[in-house]
Amino acid sequence: MRAALFDVGGTLLDMRGDPWRPLVLEAIRREFGARPWAEALYDADIRRPAPDDPHRQETNRWLSEWLKANAEELSEAEVERLRVAFAAPVDYGLYLCDGATAALRWCKSRDMTVVLVTNTLSTGDTEARRNWQRTELADVIDHVVTSYSVGWSKPHPAMFERALALAGVPATDAFMVGDDLELDVAGANGLGIRTVWKRSRDIGRDHARRQPDAVITSLTELPAVLEPWLQA
Fold this sequence. Notes:
By secondary structure, the chain is of the alpha/beta class. It folds into two domains: 3-14 and 95-231, HAD superfamily/HAD-like (Rossmann fold), CATH 3.40.50.1000; 20-86. The protein has ten helices and six strands, in the order βαααααβαβααβαββα. The chain has helices at residues 20-32, 38-43, 59-69, 76-86, 100-109, 125-133, 147-150, 157-167, 181-189, 222-231; strands at 3-6, 113-118, 143-146, 174-178, 194-198, 214-216. It has a six-stranded parallel sheet. Helix 6 (125-133) links the parallel strand 2 (113-118) and strand 3. The longest helix has 13 residues, at 20-32. It is globular and about 60 Å long. The model has no long low-confidence stretch (mean pLDDT 94).
């Protein structure tokens, strides 16, 4: 194993309670002044993926279409400023799951390239990396792959292909750790990447076909699962 791929939300971070809301609304106010649509936009699900390409992500277009439907038209440059406001800085270090720091450092100590692979609506690779730079893991994380920057969201193979390309390894030399059987496990398995499911709920009958290579309930268990893979 030469590359360790990790999901972020629910796997490395527990961000229940929505820490972004006040930060984003304040960022919008700074950029655009008081706007009557700000809170409604924050609460809205703007995603409108095409039926024939359900994982295609076009956040700026979705933002523009939502605004037009709500009697507000912004230029492309203004829509990008709005998107950046939604990517307001957050200190991820406040939300690290139990065992996250030790697990990532263990992987790095085994000379693995650590890549985070995360679905984000508005936060791009550079902005996500900025947030990680504020944490004690800044020196451990080699790359961050976001669906905003890639243009497709997990489980689309483009997300995992990008992670493998950045790590410079084939699928057989990588593993993926995530808490979602469809997005993380099925998505990575489709490319031949080994998977570790961080189990947070019971598996349903509809998930029977999505079989991870290993199951953990906490990242504290990860080294014991990975050690035999490194010796194989």
